[in-house]
């Protein structure tokens, strides 16, 4: 899902060379959480989408606090809208963010520590919220417009028409406010259908932060509620950036998110480049009014933990976070932000090109999903390398390059050829394209 304003530069940390994605007739990337574009940085209607209807408004049900790994039949349901695959189900419950010595867990804890030091005892932390949520929580309650691209089943995993695997931790904003919390951090795994490369993986981790102010707070500060929220937000997040990355220069970029107004992105100057770190803003008043008491103001932010961990620890490929290889895991220790990943070996890659006439069923996300299901984590990148339309017939041909590489071992020609054969068959059958 790439949904950023067309004007801003790409902030994705591309470790795999220049992006052939510029061939795509879509806007350049700007915002990128954990190395991934942020769909919410785009206003609605930015590209034509088939969307699910907004769930009907209803009285808030009591929060059902399920935890743990969902059962397979809870997410692979056979419902007409169900697009969760076994590959995705297998990733659920890994809880990388709850492992103290894992880079994702280390970053999470460092952020918790920062907020605890800044405002002792103020922030409640939650890191076991159930990843299966209603479309109401994921979209409606945070004011994602009815025609917003992120509602498209091409971009989001649907369990059924009214239930999704959360595609952002913002899905927990409203319910946590309703439970009466006025300052909180929610960390969890989030799920998105997307392209495949070194910084994109269909499961990753986010943290949501919210702080609510009351009238006494802004009177004491001698400013308006909105001014206090914006000022405290910027001070907190600049402090956080310095806590994680050292004495870096920070800059604020105006942004758009459905849930905040005004909205901003924070960038830091790190290793010679401006890097986007997170999205944030003053919470849309409607969210606060509908889920908290009247007469308050709040700020909110959302950040991607993989993105921060890749930048901070020099991790070159997002798949490494899912590795069970001790040569990766043993390089990190709880509480240590100074570790820098030392590659143990870079195994050779192998690529296969595949050209076909596209069909209405075809989308790059569908292709990537299919390739992942067959090739698993051996797939390093799927990139469009050629694209043309035959003037006479009006048919469009795409050529994709699939790069295979293991993080752990050398691959044999036979196994890659077998995978690629299966990919070609499945592409022709399921995506109804005509191979060339
Ligand atoms: N939910 C956004 C995303 O996944 C991130 C985000 C941006 C969260 C701004 C926020 C916010 O709370 O204020 O891309």
UniProtKB/TrEMBL annotation:
Residues 345-436 form the FDX-ACB domain. Pfam families: FDX-ACB, tRNA-synt_2d. It catalyses: tRNA(Phe) + L-phenylalanine + ATP = L-phenylalanyl-tRNA(Phe) + AMP + diphosphate + H(+). Residues 10-19 have a biased composition (Polar residues). Its EC number is 6.1.1.20. Is responsible for the charging of tRNA(Phe) with phenylalanine in mitochondrial translation. This is phenylalanine--tRNA ligase.
């Amino acid at each position: 899902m790439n949904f950023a304003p067309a004007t801003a530069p790409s902030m994705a940390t591309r470790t795999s060379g220049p992006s052939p994605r510029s061939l795509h007739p879509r806007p350049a990337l700007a915002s990128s959480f954990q190395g991934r574009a942020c769909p919410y940085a785009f206003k609605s209607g930015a590209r034509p989408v088939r969307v699910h209807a907004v769930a009907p408004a209803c009285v808030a049900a009591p929060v059902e606090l399920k935890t743990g790994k969902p059962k397979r039949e809870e997410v692979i349901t056979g419902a007409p809208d169900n697009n969760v695959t076994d590959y995705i189900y297998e990733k659920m419950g890994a809880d990388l963010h709850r492992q103290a010595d894992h880079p994702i867990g280390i970053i999470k804890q460092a952020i918790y520590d920062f907020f605890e030091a800044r405002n002792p005892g103020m922030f409640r932390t939650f890191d076991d919220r159930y990843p299966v949520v209603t479309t109401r929580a994921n979209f409606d309650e945070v004011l994602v417009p009815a025609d917003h691209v992120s509602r498209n089943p091409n971009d989001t995993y649907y369990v059924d028409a009214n239930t999704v695997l959360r595609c952002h931790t913002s899905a927990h904003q409203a319910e946590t406010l309703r439970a009466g919390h006025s300052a909180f951090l929610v960390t969890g795994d989030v799920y998105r259908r997307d392209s495949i490369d070194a910084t994109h993986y269909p499961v990753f981790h986010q943290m949501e932060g919210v702080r609510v102010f009351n009238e006494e707070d802004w009177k004491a500060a001698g400013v308006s509620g909105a001014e206090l929220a914006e000022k405290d937000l910027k001070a907190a997040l600049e402090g956080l950036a310095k806590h994680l990355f050292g004495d870096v220069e920070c800059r604020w970029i105006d942004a758009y998110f459905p849930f905040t107004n005004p909205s901003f992105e924070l960038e830091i100057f790190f290793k010679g480049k401006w890097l986007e770190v997170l999205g944030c803003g003053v919470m849309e008043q409607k969210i606060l009014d509908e889920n908290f008491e009247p007469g308050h103001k709040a700020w909110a932010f959302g950040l991607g933990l993989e993105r921060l961990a890749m930048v901070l620890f020099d991790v070159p490929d997002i798949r490494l976070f899912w590795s069970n290889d001790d040569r990766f895991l043993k390089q990190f220790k709880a509480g240590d932000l100074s570790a820098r990943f030392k590659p143990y070996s870079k195994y050779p890659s192998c690529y296969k090109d595949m050209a076909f006439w596209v069909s209405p069923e075809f989308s790059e996300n569908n292709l990537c999903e299919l390739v992942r299901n067959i090739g698993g984590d051996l797939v390093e990148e799927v990139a469009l390398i050629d694209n043309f339309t035959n003037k006479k017939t009006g048919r469009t041909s795409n050529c994709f390059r699939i790069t295979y590489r293991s993080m752990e071992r050398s691959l044999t020609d036979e196994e890659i050829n077998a995978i690629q054969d299966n990919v070609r068959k499945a592409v022709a059958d399921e995506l109804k394209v005509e191979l060339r």
